[in-house]
Write a structure and sequence with these properties.
By secondary structure, the protein is an alpha+beta fold. The chain folds into two domains: 2-62 and 191-216 and 223-375, no CATH class; 64-170, no CATH class. Helices cover 36% and strands 21% of the residues. Strands 1, 2, 3, 6, 7, 8, 9, 10, 11 and 12 form a ten-stranded mixed sheet that branches. The chain starts with a strand and ends with a helix. 39% of the residues are buried.
C-alpha cells in the first residue's frame, strides 16, 4: 500500500530554512521564483518533534545522528564493567570506522565522503538506533577479550567492521527516513518515506527587516549595532509518501509499531515546525488543508504541478482558498487521465469545497481514517 500526504500551509513572515547567505531558501518553478523549505529541514523537524518523542522515546525506538560514537561506546563499556585499559584500547579504534585512505595497519580503509572529524569523533555522521550502541559495545569488548590488547590493536579496520556487522536497528525514524553509511559495520536502510521540498503555490516576494540595537549603559544616542535579515510569507504545498510494506520490513515485520509510526508521522507532518529564526518571527502556523490518499498502486503522484501557474488571491478569496481550489481541480483532471482511484480523506479549516471522498472534522478523525485503511 502507498500512503500519500498533501498539505497546504501558510506561514506568517518567517525565515524558517536558510541558505548559505542566511536568506530563506527559494527555487524556480514554472519559471517563477518560489519560497522553499528543504526536505531535510522538514524531515528533521518531524524526527525531532515532541510527537515522536512522546510516542517512541520511552521505548528506545528513536535513533541519534552523531559523530560521537567513541563517547557513546565508552559509556556503554562502563555499564558493561570493562576495565579502564580495555575501554581506552577499544575507544581508540572507533574513529577509524568508516574512514577513507590508509588505515592504521597500512591497508586501505573504507570510503567516506564526510569531512575530517575532530579528535575522539568519527569522520562521518552515523545514524544509530539506541539498541545498536549496546550491541556494538558488547561485540567490541568480546573481540578485545578474544584477541588480547595487541591482537585487537593490530586488527585491520575492514575485519573489525565485519565483526561488528549486525541486524537492522529497531528504530522508527531510521525505518522511515533510511540511512546510508560507508562502513560495513552498519546495515544500510532503504527509506520507506519520500519527502518533497515544500514550495510556495505563488510567486515569492522576498523582504528585508532592518533592525538596530541600543546600548543600555552607554547613554549615547543612536544604534549600538545595525543589521538586517531576509524573510517572506508563503503558502506552501507539502508532499510526502509512505511505502507501507517497506516500513513494515524495516521494522522487522512489526505491523503494530508500523501503524503507530504512520499515525505519528501524520501528526508530526501537520504539527512539527521548522526552527529557523523562530525566536525572531514566531511563525507557528498549522496547515489549513490536509489530503491523505491510500492506494494499492505503488504510484507516487505529487500535485505540485497544480501550481505551475502561480496562484493569486482574488476578491475575498485568499491565497489558501485559491490554492485548495487549484489542487482539487488538478487532482480531478489527473485522476481521470490516469485512473487514480485510490481512497482518500481530507481535513480543511476553510469553507472551500474540495472534491474529496471523505471529509473529516479533525486531525484525530483523519488519523483514525488512515489507521482503518491499514487494518483492512
Amino acid at each position: 500500500m502507498l500512503i500519500q500526504l498533501h498539505m497546504l500551509q501558510n506561514y506568517a513572515p518567517a525565515n524558517l530554512n536558510r541558505d548559505d547567505t542566511g536568506a530563506p531558501k527559494d527555487c524556480f518553478f514554472g519559471g517563477v521564483k518560489r519560497g522553499r523549505i528543504s526536505s531535510q529541514c522538514l524531515k528533521r523537524s518531524m524526527r525531532q518533534s515532541a510527537t515522536f518523542r512522546d510516542a517512541f522515546g520511552q521505548e528506545g525506538l528513536l535513533a541519534t545522528r552523531t559523530r560521537s560514537l567513541p563517547t557513546l561506546i565508552d559509556q556503554e563499556l562502563g555499564r558493561l564493567g570493562a576495565n579502564d585499559k580495555a575501554r581506552q584500547a577499544i575507544v581508540m579504534r572507533i574513529p577509524e570506522i568508516g574512514t577513507k585512505g590508509k588505515a592504521k595497519d597500512g591497508e586501505d580503509g573504507n570510503d567516506s565522503t564526510s569531512d575530517e572529524g575532530h579528535a575522539g569523533e568519527t569522520r562521518q555522521l552515523f545514524f544509530l538506533g539506541s539498541d545498536e550502541i549496546r550491541s556494538l559495545a558488547e561485540k567490541l569488548l568480546r573481540l578485545y577479550q578474544e584477541k588480547g590488547a595487541k591482537g585487537f590493536a593490530s586488527l585491520k579496520i575492514a575485519n573489525l567492521e565485519k565483526e561488528l556487522r549486525h541486524d537492522l536497528p529497531r528504530s522508527v525514524d531510521i525505518a522511515l527516513f533510511g540511512r546510508m553509511t560507508t562502513s560495513a559495520a552498519f546495515e544500510n536502510v532503504q527509506a520507506s518515506v519520500q519527502v518533497a521540498h515544500a514550495i510556495s503555490t505563488h510567486a515569492l516576494t522576498q523582504e528585508f527587516d532592518y533592525f538596530t540595537a541600543i546600548d543600555d549603559i552607554s547613554e549615547q544616542s543612536g544604534a549600538g549595532m545595525i543589521g538586517d535579515t531576509e524573510y517572506n510569507s508563503s503558502t506552501y504545498y507539502k508532499y510526502l509518501n509512505i511505502h507501507w510494506e517497506e516500513l513494515v520490513k524495516n521494522l522487522g515485520g512489526d505491523k503494530e509499531i508500523a501503524r503507530r509510526t504512520v499515525a505519528a508521522l501524520l501528526t508530526a507532518a501537520a504539527m512539527a515546525q521548522p526552527g529557523g529564526k523562530q525566536n525572531s518571527f514566531a511563525a507557528f502556523n498549522l496547515p489549513d488543508f490536509i489530503l491523505v490518499e491510500a492506494s494499492d498502486k505503488n504510484l507516487p503522484v505529487s500535485y505540485a504541478n497544480a501550481f505551475m501557474k502561480p496562484v493569486r488571491g482574488r476578491g475575498d478569496q485568499s491565497l489558501m482558498d485559491v490554492s485548495i481550489e487549484k489542487l482539487g481541480e488538478y487532482r480531478q483532471r489527473l485522476s481521470k487521465a490516469y485512473d487514480l482511484n485510490g481512497l482518500n480523506a481530507y481535513l480543511t479549516t476553510t469553507d472551500v469545497v474540495f472534491p474529496g471522498k471523505v471529509k473529516t472534522n479533525s486531525l484525530a478523525e483523519l488519523q483514525n481514517w488512515l489507521l482503518t485503511q491499514l487494518s483492512e
